[in-house]
Prior knowledge:
about 325 residues; alpha/beta; 6-stranded mixed sheet; 5-stranded mixed sheet; 12 helices
Amino acid sequence: MSNHRRSVLAALCASAAVAALPRLARAQAFPDKPIRIIVPLPPGGSNDVLARILGQKMSESFGQTVVVENKPGAAGNIATDYLAKSEADGYTIAIAPNQTVAVNPVLYPDLPFDVLKDVQGITMLGRVPMVLVVSPRISASSIGALIALAKARPDGLSYASAGSGSPQHMAAEVFKSMTGASLTHIPYKGSAPALVDVLAGRVDVMFCPINSALPHIRSGKLRALGTTGLSRIALLPDVPAIAESVPGFESDIWIGMVAPAGTPAAVIQKLNAELRRALELPDVRKTLAEQGILAESSSAADFNNLIASDQKRWAGVIAAARIKPD
């Protein structure tokens, strides 16, 4: 290589290094201004609870204000699009349930963003187990009895969900495919009206987030037949996991935190470390458990891998069941 080419190359490298210095300095100083956590659903649910509890702990630790901003609509796609188009500096991050980053990207054909290219994971935050409940008018008292009843009825049983592509919908479709049970989908605009009709006996079955179902199970208004994780949960120790009678069945709701793609690795590492620290605090774990949220954290790389692998999983379910968005 000639001396001239070496000089040009050295100059280019030096220029690149100088250009990177301000960004590196900003990453090292992070955070030096307020942080926003975008929530893709209305206030009050599990996603909102996680954002507010963790936002408070982040604020105390970082010495900066953390603002929770709810951006519901379009099954969470509005919030994900907003996050994907935000500046990649760590000051705008978002709560990411599996519906928004693993299901929607393979359910909706023309989204204005690509999760795998435009979004990057920070960490897993927790799981919300669901429980398969039946209305009082359904006689089945076990998963096996429910499957037999669904197969015996000429028109099968009906099941409620919060809408096409919702966690309740996807869990039921996995259950159908693994058991051969005949279940007819009745979609609603959200979990609350769906649960109302199951309680009233107008719909037979529902895969329901445990925090919503628990009061009705304890009062005897709903019968719990099985939970959706691979093992039993402390809130319902006498209710078997569905996997005990349908080996391999699993369909929990998981929730994580994401940032725009291109956020500096040092910032992602700081956010990951802080969120994981907060999730280990006894008061945080206790408060989340009372809301039916099982705290769980991960590395950023593992969370990115989970998003990618679940997209493949749900793409197969959606294709097999011919699910279309509402």
